[in-house]
Design a protein that fits this description.
Radius of gyration: 13 Å
């Protein structure tokens, strides 16, 4: 896989994991794979699974809720990742459900 594409997918996987945790959801590897496959039609289950194994093996997934604490980066939003709403995620409470 092209290094730039790999880096972008790793960033997206980390963003999706952060969003799911932020809304009290359970961010399993398969859920993140589902979101990435919805975002990228060319990404199949095997490639998404290999990506998640790569992230896990190299330990490049930061602790979810600490990621943006001391960072100048802004946290991801649901408008950037609308696919999160389409995947069945355990325990997640999205904003419209919080009111």
């Amino acid at each position: 896989m092209d290094p730039e594409i790999l880096q972008a997918l790793v960033q997206e996987a980390n963003d999706v994991r952060w969003l799911i945790h932020y809304y009290d959801g359970m961010a399993s590897k398969s859920v993140i794979e589902d979101v990435l496959m919805l975002r990228h039609g060319w990404l199949d289950r095997d490639a998404a699974h290999e990506l998640m194994n790569y992230i896990e093996y190299h330990n490049i997934m930061p602790r979810p809720l600490e990621r943006y604490r001391f960072s100048v980066d802004k946290p991801p939003t649901l408008t950037q990742y609308p696919e999160v709403r389409l995947v069945d995620i355990r325990y997640i409470r999205l904003p419209e459900e919080l009111s």
